[in-house]
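Input record, target 12 of the design panel.
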């Protein structure tokens, strides 16, 4: 793999050397590739690409250029192993080991599929796959250091073949040993994508294949909290702390083949209709492996079932959709029918005495629709509706509606009303285990219904925004303190309000973000901090005769104290705290950083959790799981445009 990356780099470098006076992307106006007079009286022309010749899109979004502007938000993105802003979450001590969610969000990737919550942060859904359009071969590299041994590297190579076809190859590898016993993380991703648009514009196709693995050793947290909290120097080496599990690991494999194509049978000026066909096959597999049953989970052999120590669960979804689109610039409408074949099963049959099914499967039929309306460049409506039904997993309804109103440029309001009614996550429907108390089959559950109402107000003043959300969850499905699935008989209601802004004085900037939230009722079913906030105070300027740009500052992250759910490794989910649990939070997490941009290369250097260098680390990600100690976090982002 290193040899392949080196060849790509060498190829890109040689092509790059042939281009003269490449223009800074931040100062180029939108337009087609510039054509420069060669200086000779012949037919030779020199093409000088600009940043606007290097774009990407998801299947249903507008084109975007590669973002090479050194904005403050990048310090929150490229300091994270999954290259996302993880506000509202707190990371486990080892990179690649997931997060504890502090803020309620709806994850649509869990609908009608098997996806453990703590495996979801490395996963790319259909709507996150990028399709490129580049004038010359292009590569990008994103590097992060890991904890102790290992690293994280995401490498992407994309190239157009003619004007009509583009392909891209992406590989991400993550390996991090961690400071605690039995905490190794080893994740990877392979992605191939392609986009084709015919010369006459009548036929367009999108395709991708993705395979992702999220593999982690599971240690169950530290066994004796007092040894961690008392500050004894013998335990500054975290490997001296005993952990609850010694021979367990979890694996999640996510694979998808996707193909979507559309055709304009008529003259698009007179009859703007398209026919679209989309087919994909997705398989999710979850394994919890043990060398032998762990004493942490049982005390008497009678508590064990006649079942292998390791378990396997899987879900499969073969989806086929045909739709008709009316496609005008300011009015788009599509409607279609969808057929799905869905399976949920376990690798080894349950013990016969339980009578639980080994596999549940069904054929589902449904309809999909989408409406996009744009009025006077000031109002935009985007509405999606999906409905399907089957005998085993019941009906599924999802309606997403967003209205954007921009009466004055740079001052706009987004309002949303979303509704979803679906089977609980497949991970909560059945689980085979050698431990009797973790064996279950949740038969005939009611649909969990979520109503979301909210929006945000965005102002040019201080680049500020204010947002508010309200959730009503009916038949809320959760895991109790014994890791057994249950549904609430009354609704759970959650309110959220917050905002962020950027205040500047010369080259100094302050960017705070806050969120206040509360479960209005049934608080004990979904524990959450009442406050989550962060502040970023930084200095940004050009340097080295404008050849580089630097950012340096301090970031502080904080969430209020609350009785957190516990992480349950067997399911990779979070369960309600038991009577011996304790509260986490109420401790600041301070990082000092120095970031620099040189041409198309970014460097991110962070002293993370710096306050633990002069005070004891008493912070936790989840009960029994301490937050990471001070570490030097490095990130590099490099775009190579040939």
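The sequence produced for target 12 reads:
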């Amino acid at each position: 793999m290193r040899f392949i990356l080196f060849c790509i780099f060498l190829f890109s470098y040689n092509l790059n050397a042939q281009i003269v006076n490449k223009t800074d992307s931040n100062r180029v106006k939108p337009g087609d590739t510039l054509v420069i007079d060669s200086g000779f009286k012949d037919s030779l022309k020199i093409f000088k690409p600009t940043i606007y010749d290097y774009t990407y899109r998801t299947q249903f979004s507008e084109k975007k250029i590669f973002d090479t502007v050194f904005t403050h938000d990048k310090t929150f993105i490229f300091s994270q192993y999954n290259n996302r802003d993880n506000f509202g979450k707190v990371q486990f001590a080892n990179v690649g080991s997931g997060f504890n969610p502090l803020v309620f969000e709806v994850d649509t990737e869990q609908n009608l599929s098997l996806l453990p919550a703590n495996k979801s942060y490395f996963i790319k859904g259909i709507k996150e796959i990028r399709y490129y359009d580049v004038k010359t071969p292009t590569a990008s590299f994103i590097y992060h250091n890991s904890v102790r041994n290992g690293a994280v590297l995401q490498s992407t190579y994309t190239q157009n073949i003619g004007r009509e076809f583009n392909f891209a190859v992406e590989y991400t590898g993550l390996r991090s040993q961690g400071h605690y016993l039995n905490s190794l993380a080893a994740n990877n991703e392979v992605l191939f994508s392609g986009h084709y648009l015919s010369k006459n514009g009548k036929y367009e196709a999108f395709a991708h294949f993705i395979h992702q693995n999220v593999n982690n050793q599971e240690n169950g947290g530290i066994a004796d909290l007092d040894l961690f909290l008392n500050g004894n120097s013998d335990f500054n080496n975290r490997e001296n702390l005993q952990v609850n599990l010694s021979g367990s690991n979890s694996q999640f494999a996510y694979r998808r083949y996707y193909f979507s194509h559309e055709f304009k049978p008529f003259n698009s000026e007179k009859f703007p209709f398209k026919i679209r066909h989309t087919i994909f096959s997705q398989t999710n597999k979850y394994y919890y492996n043990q060398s032998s049953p762990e004493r942490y989970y049982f005390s008497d052999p009678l508590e064990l079932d006649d079942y292998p120590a390791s378990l396997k669960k899987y879900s499969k979804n073969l989806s086929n959709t045909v739709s008709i689109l009316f496609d005008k610039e300011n009015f788009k409408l599509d409607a279609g029918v969808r057929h799905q074949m869905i399976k949920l099963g376990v690798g080894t049959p349950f013990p016969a005495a339980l009578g639980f099914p080994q596999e549940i499967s069904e054929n589902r039929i449904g309809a999909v629709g989408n409406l996009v309306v744009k009025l006077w460049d000031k109002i935009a409506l985007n509405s999606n509706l999906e409905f399907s039904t089957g005998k085993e997993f019941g009906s599924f309804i999802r309606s997403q509606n967003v209205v954007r109103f921009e009466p004055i440029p740079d001052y706009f309001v987004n309002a949303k009303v979303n509704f979803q009614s679906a089977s609980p996550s497949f991970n909560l429907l059945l689980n085979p285990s050698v431990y009797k108390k973790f064996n279950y089959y949740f038969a005939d559950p009611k649909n969990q219904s979520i109503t979301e109402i909210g929006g945000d107000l965005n102002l040019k003043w201080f680049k500020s925004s204010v947002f508010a959300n309200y959730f009503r969850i009916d038949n809320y499905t959760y895991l109790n303190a014994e890791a057994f699935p249950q549904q609430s008989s009354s609704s759970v209601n959650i309110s959220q309000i917050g905002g962020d802004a950027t205040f500047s004085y010369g080259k100094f900037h302050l960017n705070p973000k806050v969120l206040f939230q509360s479960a209005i009722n049934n608080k004990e079913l979904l524990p959450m901090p009442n406050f989550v906030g962060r502040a970023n105070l930084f200095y940004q300027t050009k340097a080295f005769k404008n050849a580089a740009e630097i950012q340096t500052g301090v970031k502080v992250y904080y969430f209020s104290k609350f009785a957190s759910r516990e992480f349950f490794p067997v399911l990779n989910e979070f369960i309600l705290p038991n009577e011996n649990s304790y509260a986490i939070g109420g401790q600041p997490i301070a990082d000092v950083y120095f970031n620099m941009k040189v041409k198309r290369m970014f460097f991110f250097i962070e002293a993370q959790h710096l306050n633990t260098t002069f005070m004891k680390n008493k912070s936790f990600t989840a009960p029994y799981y301490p937050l990471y100690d001070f570490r030097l976090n490095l990130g590099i982002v490099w775009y190579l445009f040939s």
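The radius of gyration is 26 Å.
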